[in-house]
Every structure is written in C-alpha cells, then in structure tokens.
Design a protein that fits this description.
This protein is mostly helical. It contains five helices and two strands. Strands 1-2 form a two-stranded parallel ribbon. Helix 1 crosses helix 2.
Length: 132
C-alpha cells in the first residue's frame, strides 16, 4: 500500500525555530489524520481504523510541546490554532512518536535529498523498486 494523502507547500507563516515549524506541521497532519479517520468510518472501513492514531515526528521538542500544556518562553507566542495537536494528544486520539530523521519519509516532500535517500524514500513509498 502506498500513500493516500500528501501535501507540500511553502510554509504559511514565519517560524522562529525548527521546533515551531515542526509543531505547526504536526497541527496540519493532526487535522488530516482526523479527517481521514472520519472518512474511513463514514465509508464503512471502521475495522481498518486504529485508535489512537500514530503520528511520527523527528523533532523531540515539538513532541514534548504537544504533550505539555505548560507555556514556555520559546512557545508562548505560538498561534493557538497550532495547539489542536495538544488537544488530540490529551484526548488520546493521537499518539506522537519520535522517528529519526533518516527514517522520515515526509522528507521527500520537504527538503532536497541525496540521490540515495531519495531513492530509498521512493522505494519505501512503494513507488519504485530501484535503490542505490
């Protein structure tokens, strides 16, 4: 099975840190997985829906922020809309797991990769069988 939903676009707002950019991305993916879960249930595929939904992130600071409701000086300015992820974590609808950057498939949509890493991502997405 390959990807069923993806998106790549220019960042909508200026992030003051990598953590903030990753936290904003977590908010977007959280909205998307909630939508896909509801769509699958509506279409009668409840047995394929896991709960909680597993989400992967390669930024440990963003993961910690999604679990901790305490405001810090590094995060007090973050738009409240991005805290949707924290709400889903609190309600145990999603669980965010750390995944090392080398294993992050989303990188194929977000940054330039070496040929080898690009081909590895393509293969892991079941889009090709070639690997360096």
């Amino acid at each position: 099975m390959g990807p069923i939903s993806w998106k790549s676009r220019k960042q909508a707002s200026v992030a003051l840190s990598t953590m903030e950019a990753e936290y904003a991305a977590l908010s977007e993916v959280s909205r998307e997985v909630v939508y896909l879960k509801r769509l699958l249930i509506h279409m009668g595929f409840e047995k394929y829906v896991t709960s909680p939904i597993n989400v992967f992130c390669d930024n440990q600071s963003a993961i910690e922020l999604s679990k901790n409701a305490v405001f810090h000086k590094q995060s007090k300015h973050i738009d409240i809309n991005f805290h949707f992820t924290r709400e889903l974590v609190d309600k145990k609808e999603i669980v965010i797991h750390y995944l090392q950057t080398d294993s992050m498939l989303a990188d194929i949509l977000t940054k330039s990769l070496t040929k080898c890493k690009h081909e590895k991502c393509i293969q892991m997405l079941n889009l090709s069988s070639n690997i360096c």
